Amino acid sequence: MSGLRLIASYPKSGNTWLRAFLASHLRGGQPIDLNADLARIGTLTSRSLQDLHAGLEHADLMPPEVALLRPLTSRRIAQEQPGLYKTHDSNLVPPGAGEPAIPADAIDRAVYIVRDPRDVAISAAHHFGWSLAVSVDRMADASFRLGHSSTRLNVNVEQWVSSWSAHVESWLDAGDLHLLPLRYEDLLADPLEGFTQLCRFLELDDTRPAVGRSLEACSFSALAGQETRTGFRERYHASTAPFFRAGGAGGWRTALAPELAERLVAEQGRVMARLGYR
């Protein structure tokens, strides 16, 4: 394998579920340790990984300097440490940079998972400790980024996320990438079919018995139960709920105020319609 194989998504769209499945699948369908085995699908923006391949500490850099450096570092990781990685980066050119943080020539292939933004808004609010109104605001914010804090050193370097619609289309419309788009709702409705497709795309064992074993090992109840017993390192420090909180689809119908749902449709409706979200 050469190059980066990405599991890309807007935050809170199902990325961790895919990583948990792949971590189990790479172990022959065995149960996983959330706090150890997810590292088999690393986080591309991990500060330690980025520092190692950049040859310097990103903590010494300003955001525009990070944006300029990241394409170079992505290419180095693709060459020196290729494999499966998670990312929440958009496929857009950040302010101050000349190309996306992960250039197309560093990517072997990418899986892009998308979720109904009304459910994303609820999940993100719980994860980041925001109000639902703030969550809806963030999803329309073209300047939204992760990994930057004025009060604490983040475990990840800065990622340019942008708005939900811009993020989604930056990946779906990247004609120079070998891309597999997946809808979270379709994976829930028919996980065996969806994850078989995922395995085939990533050139992993796509036989139904093997996929079924891995799905059972990373069921929502199994992951939520493990978080309850041992905790989960990736749970955000300001979170107001467990990381594995609900894991379903359509919760926005009862959890999201009508005016906020209407705002999301007004702001994200064109891309929602493109993806079949009514």
TrEMBL record:
The keyword Transferase applies. Coiled coil: none annotated. InterPro entries: P-loop_NTPase, Sulfotransferase_dom. It comes from the Bacteria. Residues 6-266 form the Sulfotransferase domain. It holds the Pfam family Sulfotransfer_1. Keywords: Transferase. GO terms for molecular function: sulfotransferase activity. PANTHER family: SULFOTRANSFERASE SULT. Belongs to the sulfotransferase 1 family. This is Sulfotransferase domain-containing protein. It comes from Ancylobacter rudongensis.
